[in-house]
## 1
Amino acid sequence: MSQTASLPDPNAPWYKQLTPYHWFVFFVASAAWCFDCLDQQLFILARDNAVAALSPGIDALEQGKRSGWAMSIFVAGWATGGLIFGSVGDRIGRAKTLAITVLIYSLFTGLSSFATNMTQFMIYRALTGLGVGGVFGLAVALVADALPEFARPKALGLLQALSAVGNVTAGLCAMALSGVDPAVSWKYLFWIGSVPAFLCIFIMLRLKEPEKWIAAKAASREVGGKAMGSYGSLFGEARWRGPAILGMLLCVAAVVGLWGVGFFSNKLVAPAIANALAADNLSPAEIVKGKQWWAAANLIVMNLGAFVGMVSFSKAAHRFGRKPAFATAFIAAFVATVGFFQLFDSRDDIWMSFVLGTCQLSLFAGFAIYLPELFPTRLRSTGVSFCYNVGRFIAASGPLTLGQLQAYLGNKAVAALPTTADAAAKAAAQLEAFRNAACYISGIFLVGLIALAFLPETKGRALPED
C-alpha cells in the first residue's frame, strides 16, 4: 500500500486530501489510542470493586487508600512508559513501537483479571501503565509525520476527540454489567479491555514507517548526523529544551487537573446517587446495582462533553490560533471544576458532568495538535511523550494528595462540630471537605496559563526541523 500514490488536490478540504493509505494510518493510530482510553476508563470503573475483592475484611477507609495507591501506581507506570517508548519510537520507528505498546497494555489488562491478591494486581497495573503511556506520543507522531501538512492539525484534533468513543464504550460496558456481582464484574471489564486492543495488533502489521521518519533516520546515520530519540539532544539544544520544559508544564496543568481531580468526580456523584436511591425505598441489592449504573452514566455524560470540547478546541485552534484556544480552555476548566465540586448535589445535576468533561478534556485535543509542532521529526515522539507524560508522575500523587487534603480538612470540620453531632452531620462535613479539597487542587489549571505565555504560536507554520 503506497504512502504517496494518487495525492489529491491540495486545495480540497482536509479530509479529501487523504489517500486510502492516509486513512489507514489515521484509523490504526486512532484505534490504538481509542482502545488505550477504553482501558484507562475500565480501570477507573473496576478499581474499587477489584480492591474490595482482593482485600477481604478491610474497612472502607483502608479500601479507599488501596484504591488510591492502585491509581497512583498505574499513572506512574503510564508516565514511565511514555518516557521510554517515546524515545524508542524515534529510534526504531513509530509503527513498530506502537504495536509493542498496544501488545503490552492488552496483555497485562487481561492478566489483571487473574490477580489473586493486591500485590499481583498492583504489578499488573504498573505494567499495563507502561504500555498505555507509550501510545499517545507514538500515535500523534505517526499521524503528524504521515499525513499532508494542511490535514495534519485537523486529523490530530479528531484523533483525540475519538478517544471519547473509547471512554463512552467503557461506560456502556459497565452499565451492561451493573447487575453482575461486583466481586466478579471487575474481571469482565478487564477482559473486555484486553480483547479489542489485542486484535488491533494484527492490523498494525500492515503499517509502514512514515517517509519523513525514514529520511530523518537516514540523515542520522551520516557523518555529523543528529541522534534520533535522544533526551541528551532534546535538552542539550536550547531550540528544543525550552519547548520541552514549557510544553511539559502546559501538560502538567491539565493532566493533574484531570487525573488528580476530574476523574474523582464520582466520589461526589456517588453519595448524591445513593441518597436518591435510598429515598426511592430500594433494596440494598438494587441500590448497589443503581450506584454502578449511575457511575457508568456519569462517565458517559462526562465523555460526551469531552467529545464536544475537543472538537470545539480543534476548530478554535484552527481559526484563532493555538495559544488563544489554550488560554480560554484553561480558564474554562478551572471555573467548571470549581463550579462542579461546589454545586453538584443531586441526580438532577448530572448535566454538570457534561460541562466538566467539555472544559477539562478540551485541553487534550490541544496537546495532540500543538505538541508535534514544537519538535523535529527525529525528536517528535520523544518530545511529545516527554511533555505529555512527565505530568503523570505528579498526577500519580494527585489521588494521595487529594485524599490527604480531604482528610485534613474533614478532620478539622468534624472537630468543629458540636459534640452532639450525629453520623449524618459528620458525613456531611467530610463531603464538604472533599468539595473544598478538589477546588484547591483545581488551581493547577492556572499554571497552564503561565507556561503558555512563554510558548510560541504555531498556527500556520510548517513542522520544525533541524
## 2
Amino acid sequence: MIEIKEIELTPKELRKFVQLQIDMYEDNPYFVPPLVSDDVDTLNPKKNPAYDFCDVRCFMAYKNGKPVGRIAGIINNTLNEKHGAKDIRFGFIDFTDEIEVSRGLLEKIEEWGKERGLKRIVGPLGFTDLDYEGMLVEGYDQLSTMATIYNYSYYPEHMHALGYEKDTDWVEYLMEVPDGIPEKHNRISEIVKKKFGLKVAKFTSKKEIKEKYGRALFQLINEAYEKLYQYSPLTDRQIEHYIDVYLGLLDLSLVSCIVDSDDKLVGVGISMPSMSRALQKSKGKMLPFGWIHLLKGLKGKNDRVDLLLVAVKPEYQGKGVNALLFQDLIPAFIDHGYKYVETNPELESNSKVQNQWDSFKNRQHKRRRSYTKEIEY
C-alpha cells in the first residue's frame, strides 16, 4: 500500500524531504548529493524569494511507513502570465522502481494543477533556471555535478509508461583542457578587442566584484537567457539573494568578465572547482566534518572544473566574445592543474553554444530531458 502525504514547508520536514534522495543513492558512485542546507533553503518559503511569484507543494510517498519517493509541484505564476501558459512544474522528483510510487506522486501534482485550472504539467524543473532541471536519460555511468540532477535509468521508463513525452533535451560535454590557448581563440579574441573595444576586467577582491558588477551580472543573465526554454527572469529580490549567497564562494581567478570601453559588462564566464567528490565524501552535510571535505574541494588538488555559466549580451552574441572569455579562462585552468572541463547542461537546440567546443577535444557524455503531459479533466 502506497501512501502519499503532503509535507509542511518547514526546515525540519524539508530536511527529511532532501535526505530521502541522499539515502536512495547512498551506494551509487556517480550520484553527487546536494548540500542539504542549500536544498532546504531553496524549498523554504522564508528563505527563497522565488516564493514571491511561485506557489509550491511538496509530497512524500511511503510504503509500510518507509519513505520511497518525493516530488515538488511548482506553479510559476510570472512565467505563466508572461507566456499566456497554464503550466504546473514538477521537480525534486525521486522514486523507487515501483510504478505505483511514481504514478501516485505525479498524480498529486496533476490533481493540484487541475484544482488551479492548469492545462499542462512539465518537468523536472525548479523555480528558475538556476535550480535543478532535466531528468538524466544518458550518462548514468558518468559522475554528476553539484548543479545537475542524477537519477537511475528506470526513471525515464516510468515517465513514458505514465504517458509523459519529451518537451526538450539538454546535452553536456566533457572537454579536455588544452596545453595552451587554441590559435583560433587567440585570433578571434584580438579581432574582437579591436573591433568592439572590449577588454577583460580582473578582480582580486570579492567585495569589489560584488559592488561593481554584482547586480549587472545577474541582469546580464536575464538578458542573455530571456528567450531560452522555460526561462524565468530573476527579480530584484532574487538578484540580491544570489549576490549574497553565491558571489562570495567564487575563486575570482576562475571568473572572466568582459567589459566595453565604458566598463559596462557585456559577457561573463563563471567556473569553479568540481565539488562532486567533496560532496560525496561529506554526504551533503557541513557538520560534523563535512566542511573539511568541502574546503578541500574548493582549495585542494582537483583535476576537474565546472563551467557553471556563460552569458553574453544579446547584441554581442555570435561576435566572438566567447573566444575572449576562454582566452582568459584557459590559462587559469592550466595554472590550477585542471585536466577536464564539465560544461553543465545546454539546450540541444543551442548550436551556437555547442559550436564553440569544436576547438577543444570533447565528448558529449550526458543528456537530460524535460517531460510534459496534458492534464486530463
## 3
Amino acid sequence: MNPGLLNEEERFLAAHIADLQRSAERSGTPRFSAFLNEREAVVAECAVKGRPCFFGGYPGAMRRICGFVEGTYASELPPEDIFPVSAVTFSFRKSDSITHRDILGSLMSLEIKRELLGDILTAEGYAVVFVHENAVELVGAVDRIGKVGVSAEIGVTKPLPEQKVQRTEHTVSSLRLDCIVSAAINTSRERSASLIKSGMVSADFSSCTNVSAPVAENTVISVRGSGRYRLASISGETRKGRLRITIEKYL
C-alpha cells in the first residue's frame, strides 16, 4: 500500500501499529491494538514487517484486534488465551426484534468507544457482541436495548449466529469493477462509474477509482450508502458470451 494514499487517521494508525510491534520485540511481551475494521486491518498489515496476528473472537470475524506475539512469552499460546477479546450474549423474547444498529446505538450511548466493540451477531431471541476486555463489565451490565429488556451473560453462551447474506444471480459483459458494481446495486454502468470515480467504492477494503479495474472471485466490494457485497462465484458464459456470476450482499 502506498503511504501517500493514506489519510491522516490512517497514517496515525500505521505509526501506532508499528510502535506496538517494536514494543513487543523490545519487551518480549505481547502487544495489542483495539478492534480494527477491515480497511484498518489492511493498513496495519502494511505498516509492519512480517505478518501480525489478528483475532476477533471467532473464525471469520470482520472486526479484529491486531496483535504481536512472535518472540514473546505468549508465542505458543492460542489466540483465545492471550488476545483481550471477550463476548457478551444478550437474550430477549423471540417476539422482540433487535438489530445490529439497535445494539450498537445502545452501547455507544454509554460512551463505549467503537474501537472497543467487535462484531455484533444477531439471531432470533438473542445476540452475541464481541468486546474488548476493558469494556466487558460495562457491556455485561446492560439490561435494556432500546425499549427491549435483555438479559446479559458474559461469554458466548448460545450457538454463534451466522452472517446473513442475500445471494443474487447476474450476467455481466465483463469483470470490470463498474460492471460488478452495476449488477450488485442494480444501477446503470454510468451511475456505477460515477460512484467509483467519486471514491465511493472500495475493493477488498481499499478505495478504487479505476472503473476498469478487474474484479476477481471472492473480492469484497463496499459501496458507500449501499452496503457490502462479495463476488461469490463466476460460473461460466451464456451463449452470447456474457459471464454468469453470483453476488452476495451482507445483511
## 4
Amino acid sequence: MKKRMMKRFAVVSLTIITVFTMASCGREESGANLITTEEEKKEVVNLFGPMEKSDPDAENVARNATDRTIIMAEEKLDITVEYKTYTAENYQEKTYDDVTLERARNQMDDLYLLNPDTIQILGEEGELLDLSGLDNAKNLREVAKTANTVDGKLVAIPQEVVAYGLFLNKDLFDQYDLPLPETPEDFLECCRVFQENGIETPVGANRWWLENFVFAQAYADLYNGGNTETEIAALNAGERKYSDYMRPGFEFLEELIEKGYVDAKAAYTYEAIDGERADFLAQKTPIVMAYWGAANTDTAYGDPDFELQVIGFPSKRGPMPVVSMTGYGIGTEAEHLEDAKNLLNEMLSDEALQIYTETNKVISPSQNVEVDCIPALKPLNDKIKENVYVLGSNAGMKMEQWGNTCLLVRELLNGATVDECMAKLDKLQEESLKK
C-alpha cells in the first residue's frame, strides 16, 4: 500500500560476499593459479526496496511471501539477490519515493520496487525497461497492464493487485432493513437512516482513503465503458478536464461532510485504520473503507464480532472496486540486465505467484492464479474477476492520480469549497501538460 511503502524501516546490514583467493607458493610469474569459490561464480542482482531480507523467524507475512518467491528464483537461476534497503537514518528527510527516483535515474540498482507515482515519472523519463517481452507477462490481468503502461510500454509489474472497498457491518444494515448500497444515492440514504437511529457518524474516515469515493464516481464509465484509451488520450492532450470527471465525487464528499455523515475534523487527522478502527469494531460506526488485506488481518478488521461484508464504492454502475498497486521495474541500463529480467520473470511465474497469493491472501496479477478469499471479500473479488474496477493510480495518465487527489480531498476536509478544489485540479493538469 502506498502509505505503507512510505514508512521508515530499521537499518540493515547488506550481504557481503567474501572472495577467497590463493596464490601459487609465492611465485610471481603471470597466470598465478587462483581458486574461485562457488559464491563468486554466482550472478548477482541488486534489488532496491523498502524492506531488508526478512529473518526466517519473522512474523511479517508480506515480507516472507516476497522472500519465498525470490528464493525460488535464486535457486532456479543460480543467482544471488542483494537487498539494498531504504532507511530513514541513511536518507534523513528524503522519502522512499525521493530516494528511488535518485537511485533509478543514476542506474544504481537493477530491480526496484516502485510506488505508482514513481512508476509514472520514471516511465515517462525512459528510465524503466519495457517488460512486455517477459514470458510470464502474457499471464497478467488487464488491470495490472493498464495501470503500469507508459507510452505503450509495460514498465512495472506487481506481485499483487491492491483493491480498496467499503467495509460494512452487515448486522447493522440488517437491523435497519437496509440493502447494501450500490449507487451514491443508496449510500446517502443508508447514512440518513443510520443517523436518524442514533448513529451520529455513520462513516469512519481517515485522511488517506476518502479519495476512493471520488475515483469510483469519476472513472466508472472511463474504465468500464469500452472507450478507456481514447478518454485517457483526451485527458493527456488537455482536450478533456479531470475536474469534469471528479466534480461529482467531490460534491458527494461535500454532502457527506455537510450532513455530518463524515467527521471532517477527525478524518483530517486520522491515520488509516488507526483512527476509525475502534469505533467500527465496537459497532458504533457501520461503514469504513480499507484495502483487501485489512479483512484478513486481526490487527485491522480480520476478527470482528459481527458479519463483515466488503463491497465496492458507490457509482452509477454499482459497487466499484478501486485498484492501486506498487510494481517491480528494471532500469534500462541495469548492470545485470538479463539476470534481472530472468529473476523478475521467475518471480511472476504462476508457481511463484500462487505461493505469494496463498501466503498473503491477496489478488494475484496473474489471471491464472485465484485467491481463496474469505466470504466477506467475495463481492469485491467477484467484481475484480469480472474486470469491473477503476484505477486509483494509472501510470498512463500524465497527471498523477492518487497523491494529487488525496491532497485535494484533505483541503476539502479542511474547509475548501468544491470549486476551489476543482480550480487547483485544473492547474495541476495544466502543469502536467507542460512536462
